[in-house]
Amino acid sequence: VAIEKETPENERPETFLRESDGAAASMGDEHRSSLRARFERMIRETQDEVCAAIEAADGGGKFKEDVWSRPGGGGGISRVLQDGGVWEKAGVNVSVVYGMMPPEAYRAAKADAGSSSVKPGPIPFFAAGISSVLHPKNPFAPTLHFNYRYFETDAPKDAPGAPRQWWFGGGTDFTPAYIFEEDVKHFHTVQKQACDKFDHSFYPRFKKWCDDYFLITHRGERRGLGGIFFDDLNNYDQEMLLAFSTECAKSVVPAYIPVIERRKNTPFTEKNKAWQQLRRGRYVEFNLVYDRGTTFGLKTGGRIESILVSLPLTARWEYDHKPEDGSEEWKLLDACINPKEWI
Amino acid sequence: VAIEKETPENERPETFLRESDGAAASMGDEHRSSLRARFERMIRETQDEVCAAIEAADGGGKFKEDVWSRPGGGGGISRVLQDGGVWEKAGVNVSVVYGMMPPEAYRAAKADAGSSSVKPGPIPFFAAGISSVLHPKNPFAPTLHFNYRYFETDAPKDAPGAPRQWWFGGGTDFTPAYIFEEDVKHFHTVQKQACDKFDHSFYPRFKKWCDDYFLITHRGERRGLGGIFFDDLNNYDQEMLLAFSTECAKSVVPAYIPVIERRKNTPFTEKNKAWQQLRRGRYVEFNLVYDRGTTFGLKTGGRIESILVSLPLTARWEYDHKPEDGSEEWKLLDACINPKEWI
Q: Could you tell me what percentage of chain B is helix, strand and coil, using 3-state DSSP and rounding each to the nearest 5?
């Protein structure tokens, strides 16, 4: 998988889609309402909404915007607020990518595609997503990450009759350095409410998936207190999954901002700050060693500054640090090692 | 490849070798002078020597020592000095590992091993090494890394006549945040002198290997200003390579300490410190994403705190930071992007 080099743009285009995907205003309703077009609109609206809420709560910091495109179609908008009043680094990115994937990856995604006698060449794919990491300054205010993405393949050029594949992925997860039960319950309750509108099996399933995914294997601990995570989701109605992804994305602000408002001005000590910084080190370890989006992006030549905006402004590694048994720091670590049911 | 869990020890044993490798004092000269035994002695002497030089230059900080062993033989000594007068984090570790590797790895290491009609099972291997990363506080004082290791396989159990394989690897490299030509020249000159005692082709070849190895591929920049690096070296006389590794290890103190003495008290600004911290972020990126020793250690269940002692105490990631053209920061970055000949 390789992606072309990006070009900076001075203005946000109305869409990053190729004309054939419904980019032209003159196209009929059928194209303008394609899933690709509707997903792009959703993630761009979410970007605007989250950035507005962050700026309002920050009370001073402003997002800096970078727009970029790629020659063959696709592009993105990166927004970063750095050294604000409340957040030390907050990144909210949308991107639309057209690329080619090896047929092995396609077959892996769709078990019965290998049964055809046609040996396919590289498969064109489309991927659109919003990705965000929000790192506050105050050690009692949690880091939040969310990502919602839609993926679709075209039929291979030499097998035009082959079925298109599509899937949804995403999640929202919560990474405090200290546990306030009230905050964690609120966060998980909002996730569950979003899930329950669609399927009562979603929250328990996606909560566990999240605990499993964000494991720092070499430490046997998760980077945080979880939330929801799902990937390669295609065994439901496509419209339902679009609506579900939209609901999850719309839940970011109500899940997170009330917690930030409660914690952003809490007085703290140097010891609290050092512990937050150690947990930020764990965040770096997870993202650089395990996170699929990050490692995939680094290897395929994605826009480095957009990919690594997820890293905190500052992080810390102390040799063999062990929190005192029963301390507040120990409680957080324990919940990262042994995931809990919060609601 | 998998490694057993380590057990903490209260005392340093005389050797971490298995008895069959010359651990028992009662064994004859043949075993006591095995390459395994001599390499272990060399790296332990180097550890003592480097730690003494660091403590003397630090003028206050003391190394904390952790000794550990593994049930089937092998173990290590980790020494870490944290928050000293001069160094914010200095780790000097030795380890001796007995493990099993898949036969594919053995065949890859020795091209003609596949020609035998015997299909070998897992291969027992022995690996011993010293590994060190020294991160000073002052942004004008450079970070140093060095690592010297010796690797040997036993014959597979089901093919006792198969030849043993062995190789040496290692290197010493220099990572300042600011360039002082005098320092870089001194460092590289000491490396070249060590190489030239053995083979005049070594310095140019291992200097280039170092520039190639420490590349942060996703940024197109190296983590620092290089030095020497070599791996899988076995096409020279074994005694010569042991002497060469020993010479390189003995060159660490004269290559590094004079530079530290010159820079450890240089006055600096907050801007200098922030730039050092950004370069430390690059160090983290290289080690977690590319460094073979680190990624191998994380995946095989090595002792995490020993492996990750290479990470700096603190690091920083600013979104889209670009040093001003022609500035001192720009000069360092330029030399990381376009490696130079320093002598």
A: 40, 25, 35
- Please give the Cα distance from B281 to B276 (Å, whole number): 9
pLDDT, tens digit (0-9, with 9 covering 90-100), for B108-125: 555 444 455 556 678 888
CA distance readout (Å), A166 to A99, A104, A154, A241, B88: 14, 16, 9, 11, 50
Q: Which residues of chain A from 79 to 118 reach within 8 Å of chain B, CB to CB?
A: 80, 82, 89, 91
User: Which candidate, A12, A30, A31, places its Cα nearest to that of A21?
Assistant: A31
What separation in angstroms does the CA of A230 have from each of A70, A196, A208, A241?
Answer: 28, 15, 10, 11
Please give the Cα distance from A254 to B137 (Å, whole number).
42
A residues 250-309 closer than 8 Å to B (CB): 277, 281, 284-285, 288-289, 295, 298-299, 301, 304-305, 308-309
Rounded to the nearest angstrom, the gap between the alpha carbon of residue B17 and the centroid of all alpha carbons in its chain is: 20
State yes or no: pLDDT of B34 exceeds 80: yes
> From the candidates A135, A145, A186, A188, which is the catalytic residue?
A145
* Distance to chain B for A301, nearest Cα, Å: 7
Mean pLDDT of chain B: 91
The C-alpha of B288 sits at a distance from chain A's nearest C-alpha, in angstroms, of 6
Interface of A with B in 139-198 (CB under 8 A): none
Q: How far is it, in rounded angstroms, from Cα A320 to Cα B81?
A: 12
Q: What is the pTM of this model?
A: 0.91
Instruction: Tell me the per-residue pLDDT of A166-212, one tens digit each, with 9 for 90 and over.
Output: 999 999 999 999 999 999 999 999 999 999 999 999 999 999 999 99
> Among A66-75, A200-209, B220-229, where is mean pLDDT lowest?
A66-75
A110 or A327, which is more confident: A327
Contact by Cβ (8 Å): A70, A77: no
Best residue of B5, B278, B288, B317 to probe chain A, by most A CBs closer than 10 Å: B317
Residue with the two structure tokens 């060159």: B251
**Alpha-carbon gap, residue B220 to B209, rounded angstroms:** 16
Size of chain A in residues: 343
What Rg value do the Cα atoms of chain B yield, rounded?
A: 21
Q: Which residue has the higher pLDDT, B300 or A15?
A: A15
Tokens 């060399």 found at: B42
> Which residues have C-beta within 8 Å of that of residue B311, sequence separation ≥ 6?
A281, A317, B283, B284, B287, B288
Which residue of chain A is at minimal alpha-carbon distance from B311?
A: A317
Contact B318 A82 (CB under 8 A): yes
Q: Residue A88: its pLDDT value, please?
A: 97
Q: How far is A165 from chain B (nearest CA, A)?
A: 30
CA-closest candidate to residue A249, choices A143, A149, A126: A149
- Decide if A58 contacts A134 (C-beta within 8 A): no
Q: Strand B7-9 vs strand B74-82: parallel, antiparallel, or unpaired?
A: unpaired
Backbone angles phi, psi at A185, to 5 degrees: -60, -45
Q: Which residue has the tokens 């979003």?
A: A194
Model pLDDT for residues A87-117, shown as the tens digit of each residue? 999 999 999 999 887 776 665 455 444 455 5
Instruction: Yes or no: say if B158 and B122 are a contact pair by the CB < 8 Å rule.
Output: no
Inter-chain CB proximity B318 and A313 less than 8 Å: yes
C-alpha A341/C-alpha A241 separation (Å) is 25
